[in-house]
Amino acid sequence: DSEIQPIFTNNCTAACHNSSSINGGLNLSASTSYSELVNVASQGYSGFQRVKPGDPMNSVLHQKIVGNTSFGDRMPQGGSALAQADEEKIKNWIQNGAVKDWSGGGAVSSYSFDFGPGPYIDVKAPIEGEQIWSIEAWVKFHQKPTTSGHDIFFLNNNANQNLLVYYFSPNSDKFRVELRPTPASGTTFLETSANEVFDTKFHHFYLEGNGSKIAIYIDGTNKAEADYTGSFPQSDKDMRIGYHLDASMDEIRFRKKSGFPGLPTARYNAEEGTWLLYQFDDQSTTQITDNSGQNNHGTITGTAAYEDDVYASGAGGGGGGKSNTIQIVVRLNQDIGNGDVH
């Protein structure tokens, strides 16, 4: 159960924000609060969302509970400010992806999507026509493919032209990317060996186009690149994610930017440039919610199946599980001003 709803119930729904008094068009009752807050555009503040997962500063809820006067009256309106601990709890909830069930320790309801039983995800690729782009995901193969046609990402068109195919080729014993640009000028191929990923653990796959080249990174290593000046292909069909793939995937992210940001060690936030972010929080049987805030939700074809997320189950060579780190906590008893801390 979520630790966030009791804050709303105890402070916001008695006199307003309930089914009989929907102040500001917002009902914070337990049955409706999540669907009316998360990834929902604000009615009063253009360009902002009520709750933008991963981004408290651009979430109206956070700004109102901390008393930012640019966002009108502080919440709860006409009452005492929330306890500092509750304000921090809401901020942390948003910062960690605004998942539906939250116990303060992280994304406790996050899962990975298991494509092994045969389902796949259809979505209109939000990076079509872009020259600068990147696609990435954590992938856990259940077994090494013995035939072709097991696609991590697959995009073709109604003329049956393959525009993007990213798959493992048993014939060459390599991962292969085939990319046909828009406008079409032949297909660019990339190949790389990576047999270490078939250990039934999560590994990180990253593909980008930077305007002059395309490149594959696996577990943080640049495995292959080729000259490529075309844009990401445009199609009259949806992209298929995990098409015939016997694997689980998590943290699927599309960006309108390139430059490998380093191997991730925690859930992504909806940072600038992110146009699709699938984190599989709600175990839906019909739709995959896009946590980027851009509403590029995916449609599930087949029977949905889920497993533990990458950070719960641990990663392989990518190190997506808990890293070997030393946590240093610094407490200061004086104001350090507005400068950066390094």
Tell me the total number of β-strands: 16
- The CATH architecture of the largest domain is Sandwich
Q: Report the β-strand fraction as a percent range.
A: 25-35%
Fraction of residues in H or I helices? under 10%
How far the N terminus sits from the C terminus, by CA atoms, comes to: 37 Å
Reported by name, the CATH topology of the largest domain is Jelly Rolls
Oligomer: single chain
Spans of at least 5 consecutive residues with low confidence: 319-342
- Coarse structural class: mainly beta
Please, how many helices? 5
- Sheet bearing the most strands, described? 8 strands, antiparallel
What's the number of domains? 2
Under the CATH scheme, which class of the largest domain?
Mainly Beta
InterPro entries: ConA-like_dom_sf
Organism: marine metagenome
Protein name: Cytochrome c domain-containing protein
Short key terms for the protein model shown above:
single chain; 342 residues; mainly beta; Jelly Rolls; 2 domains; eight-stranded antiparallel sheet; 5 helices; 16 strands; 10% helix; disordered C terminus; ConA-like_dom_sf
Short description:
The chain is mostly beta strands. The chain contains five helices and 16 strands.
